[in-house]
Amino acid sequence: MSGTSAGSAITAFLCTRNDEEIKRDLKPHILYDKMLCFSRSWPERIISYIKTGAMFDVDEWLEMIKWFTLGDMTFLEAYRKTGRVFCITLSATTKRAPPVLVNHITAPNVVIASAIIASAAVPGFIHPVKLQVKDKDGTVRVQGNETWWDGSIEQDIPTAGLAEMLNCHFFVTAQCNPHIVPFFYNSKGDVGRPSRWSSGMREDSWRGGFLLSALEMYLKNDMRAKFTFLRDIEAVKGFHANLFSQSTYSGSTTIVPQVALIDYFKLFVNQKISDLERYFQGGTVAAYQHIAMIRLHYRIANALDECLAELEQSDGTASTKPRRRSVMLEKKNAPKRSSVVEAADDDEYEYGFDGGVDEIPHGSDKKGGV
């Protein structure tokens, strides 16, 4: 899992808790009084910006975020607890320094809370952040003089880094950036949302008709081209240079929730329980539209794993490969039984994020998931 800016806080919530803790804490009435980063009034924000150059205090945000990370947990500690690979993208404040991807491999002793605040350090909101590390004796200290800020400035979705480091090829992306969501317009329909123009009889029908689709496509592409041009001639400096001109805002399949106009007026205020409930519902609906595609890709991956397992068994190298392939081959070659028994046997294994397989006792209600 990878998160950038505010998304890193959500990903940290999932990667520092086991399944039981997630079910316990992932509820609107629990989250609403933990998400208080915008508690300052606008007069206080303006005064703070005039005095310090930032509307909010780094230390205040750091203390708030520790509930999401269960204290001063490091990347390595989170991985050992849950087995989930957690990555955060950071952008260096030094000129022309490339963005970095921190996780339990590249930065095992870095405190997750400090990395989240660094990834969410939007210029003007808080100052760039120095990362914290935890020593063997549990002491937390600042590491070096390098400062970091919002990871989405340079690379919102680190597809290249994830592919190189973790061999990822299929990316399920949840895109909620308020300045990017309006640009997601699929003129011929999207996953789970086919175009119903022309009565939906043609797969290549243009949503809203050809002329309206072409007009919207022209305006948005022209706007992006102008932002890219301004960035290339260095007419725009700093944070705003890459705001709209990146190419890494989407993945193999991109989940984009429906956004109402009122949501833009609530960007910088603490959310109410009713707002969180609406966000939960909207996110659930948006995710369900992509389930069929995700399931299809996993079926293809599982079929390839079965083929590899057969080849490995034939040449005697199966013992040196991940257990997942051999287990899948055993399940494939198992004698056929009734559909009820087969459905029950599907719960015998849980596919972990590291490619391994953990056995689950019979009778457990825990479902396997990747």
Write up what this structure looks like:
With 370 residues, the protein is of the alpha+beta class. It folds into two domains: 2-193 and 249-297, no CATH class; 194-199 and 206-248. 39% of the residues lie in helices and 12% in strands. It contains 13 helices and eleven strands. It has helices at residues 6-15, 19-25, 28-31, 42-52, 58-65, 75-82, 112-119, 159-166, 210-232, 273-288, 291-315, 323-333, 339-345; strands at 2-3, 87-92, 100-102, 129-134, 140-149, 172-174, 189-190, 193-194, 253-255, 349-351, 357-359. The strands form four sheets. Strands 1, 2, 3, 4 and 5 form a five-stranded mixed beta sheet that branches. The chain has a two-stranded parallel ribbon with strand order 6-9. Strands 7-8 form a two-stranded antiparallel ribbon. β7 (189-190) and β8 (193-194) form a beta hairpin. The N and C termini lie close together (11 Å). Residues 325-329 and 336-370 have low confidence and may be disordered. One of its GO terms (biological process) is lipid catabolic process. InterPro entries: Acyl_Trfase/lysoPLipase (IPR016035), NTE (IPR050301), PNPLA_dom (IPR002641). One of its GO terms (molecular function) is lipase activity. It comes from Minutocellus polymorphus. Residues 314-345 are annotated as: Disordered.
Helix fraction by DSSP (H/I, runs of at least 4): 25-40%
- For the record, the count of structural domains works out to 2
Give the topology string: H per helix, E per strand: EHHHHHHEEHEEHEEEHEHHHHEE
**What does the radius of gyration come to?**
23 Å
Please, what is the average pLDDT?
77
Structural class: alpha+beta
Number of helices: 13
Q: How is the biggest beta sheet arranged?
A: 5 strands, mixed
Count of beta strands? 11
> What is the CA–CA distance across the termini?
11 Å
What's the shape?
A: globular
Ranges where pLDDT stays below 50 over 5 or more residues in a row are 325-329, 336-370
Strand content: 5-15%
Domain PNPLA: 1-163
Family: Belongs to the PLPL family.
Protein name: PNPLA domain-containing protein
GO molecular function, one term: carboxylic ester hydrolase activity
